[in-house]
Every structure is written in structure tokens, then in C-alpha cells.
Amino acid sequence: MTLGTIRQLRVPDLIGLTAQNAALVLKAAGFPQPDIQYAESYEPRLSVISQSPPARQIKDSTTVIRITVSQRNLIRQMPAIYQKDQNDGSNLLRDFLWVFQHIIDGINDTIDNIHDVFDPYETPEEFLPWLASWIAFTIDDNWPVEKKRHLIKKAMEFYRIRGTVKGLELWLELFTGVTPDILENEWPFQGFQIGVNSTIGIDSIILPPVNKAHCFVVDFPIDPDEVTDELIFRIHDVIQAQKPAHATYYLRFKGERKGLAAFGIVIGEHAVGAGMEVVEIEDDEDAGDDLDIGI
Predict the structure, then answer these.
(1) Which domain does 22 fall in, by range?
(2) Number of domains, the chain
(3) N or C: which end of the chain has fewer CB within 10 A?
């Protein structure tokens, strides 16, 4: 917590509450989880018998409230000879067994509140990847915790639009921070001609027939010079996971043109793409149009 978010808060009265309810009251008041200590008392089990600092004092929101909770010590389950106190009233074994009582109560609390583990908004942060894996939902480790919780909660809604343009745009925006343009029933190349100096399979390739009904183009408004290998792999992973299995796609980055007046691929002496023309430009000439780079 930074200095800018520290607030002055009034300490709530916790005496008489159960330890679990006391933790909820402190959370609602803006305080962190309390420091719990055990002591034997005639008060109801697991009820708060004292607190420090006392109620109604003004403290920073980072202050950890210490509460003493009534609990029966495990030494009461042992032979009487072990239960005797020293002359000064101390008992090392009793104090040592409080450690195990905390462990046991922690396990019991987890079992009693197991339903919270399956709630994305309540589960511990370290459990979020495991919870997401149960529904085959991918999360990015670099996402803020709040974003992870929200997206896991909405996972079933995202699955309803999986394989659609809307769903693919949503996922690509989540993982890249940029909204792409997705063109359905499109393919960037209409055909090509092999030049007389080309050798099939050695310095040129032939693309298989393409059915535009099963094709789409993904245009990212990102300058090609700013595209990293990591970003390319991430985009391909997202598209492969979210697109229909039978569909073929073409990934393209669009930025400022600096070398070509028109884009094409040359095989032998000819350009790939009917109607496209390759124009040579001096290195210092800038046409100012958009450059499409396909991957």
C-alpha cells in the first residue's frame, strides 16, 4: 500500500464477535486481516475477548489489529501431569500447543469456507490459475489480479461467442491491448504467375486453393517496426485457440509505408497478387500511405 492510499480509520468494536466475523468487520472497515492469539477463557469458543488497539481509536488503514480469541488448549486432551503449571503460572507445553491449534483451526476454517475457493472474487490470488484451468480458461500472468478475477467470472459468457468475430476481437484485445479489424470471407492474394527463371519447390512455392468462405484476414493497426516476436507468437496462439477449426486466416500489420508504393511478393520476375504492382522507390522517399505486412 502506498502512502497516497493510507487513510485514517476508526477501530471497530470486536469484543464478543467470533474470530471469523471480526475479520469480516475489519475488512469492511478498511483494515487488513487481524493478528489472532488464543487464550483459555470461559467465554464462548472462538469469540473475541480482547483487542489491541481498543475500539473507537483512530488508526492508519495499514494497522494490524491484534485480537485475543477464546479457545480450548490441546493440553486438556493430555494426562493431568502435563497440565500442571509452573510456580509462576507458565506452562511451556501449553504455549507450544497453541501453535498446533492455529494450524488445526486454519484447516477447519478452509473446510468450512471451501465454497469461497470456487468464487473468483474470493479465492486466494495464488489459486486463480488453478481455478481458470478447471474451465480451460487462459489467463495472462501479467494481468492485474482484479482483471483475472473478473474474466474468470465471465468465462462462460466468453465461451458463448467463441469462434465468432466478436469473440476473436475480444480475446485479441485482452491479450494485446489493441483492437484488430477482422475481415470475413477475405484473402489478400487473388493469384500469381511463375516467371521463366523460377524453379518450383526450390526458389518458389505454390499456395493451395483457398475457399474464401472459410477465410478471414486479421488487420492489426500496429507499426511493423514495433512488432516483437513475442507479440506475434501471442497473437497466433490466441487466433488458433479461438477461431473455427476449419478456418484459415492471414495476419497483417498495418503501418506507415517507407519502402514500397504498393505491396506485393515477387516470385521470379512477377508479382504475387493479381492487380498488385511492385514499384521501386529511393530509400529516402516516403510515399506516406499504409504498408501491409502479412505473417
Answers:
(1) 3-114
(2) 2
(3) N
Residue pair 11/53 in contact by the 8 Å Cβ criterion:
yes
Is residue 102 domain-shared with residue 183, that is, in the same domain?
no
Question: Locate cell 490470488: which residue?
Answer: 125
Count other Cβ atoms within 10 Å, centred on residue 147: 13
Q: Note the pLDDT of residue 276.
A: 36
- Report the pLDDT value the prediction gives residue 66, as an integer from 0 to 100: 96
Q: Are residues 189 and 262 in the same domain?
A: yes
Q: Which of 114, 140, 156 is the last residue of a domain?
A: 114
Regions of the chain with pLDDT less than 50: 1-3, 256-294
**CB of 52 closer than 8 Å to CB of 66:** yes
Of 175, 172, 137, give the one whose Cα is nearest residue 157.
Answer: 137
Strand pairing class (8-10; 48-52)? unpaired
DSSP code per residue over 46-98: TBEEEEESPTT-EEETTPPPEEEEE---GGGGS-HHHH---TTS--HHHHHHH
- Please give the pLDDT value at position 292: 45
